[in-house]
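User: quick one, fold this
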Amino acid sequence: MPILDLDSHRLHYLDEGRGLPVLLFHAYPLSAELFRPQIEALKDRFRFLVPDMRGFGQSGPADGPTTMRRMAQDGLALLDALGIERAVVGGVSMGGYVSMALLREDASRVLGLVLSSTQARADTEEARQGREAIAAQVEQEGVQPVIDAMVPKLVNVERSGCGPTVTTLIQAATPAGIAGAQRGMAQRLDSREVLARFAGPALVLVGREDAITPVDKAEAMHALLSNGELTLIEDAQHLPSLEQPGAFNAALATFLERVDSAG
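Assistant:
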């Protein structure tokens, strides 16, 4: 079980496959196992580096708000520990926020950018208040309210059959991890200027039925990117990587091959 010790914090991560390094950040409130369909399908061509972010999966607990910058710095520390200078960087939902934060920290490390089910704008005041309410509820009641509220929004439970998988991934999260991530997301910066400055290749993916970060959010990010492409995944909500892995993997593999061939 790969573990990286960071400032008294234990970061668990997956390191599977070979070839072009691809650093991926998972969605809230899940874990690195969200990307199991991508790893199993593509690990013969690409090396996947996927941390469990603080308070999620098998990583150590969060301590206060877990900012997107802190998680991005964890990702950079993982690359440093593995001796990897540059990688494709990407994420789903909150993982997209972390990817944009990493781009802000050090764009020279980013060979290409993959953003799925996310958005570039910061939270509104109303959204920040909503996040604080969720954080406080979880601290008092545990993770079950998050499961009840989130699973039907993340995937189409009846059609996809992914509900039990998503539930299991959320159950691995700690209340402190969920609360810390909510408060960290509330503090995140607007990343529109960061995306507009990025000249490297980028892939934006979104489920056609995503109600959390709808298609117009993906289109807005795509419009900012000078070298970006947009892929809509049919019959998918907020987690197209899990709900429609075939279509997601095909788009991801084509993009990664293009980045790899460009050197």
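User: anything notable?
Assistant: The longest helix spans residues 245-262.
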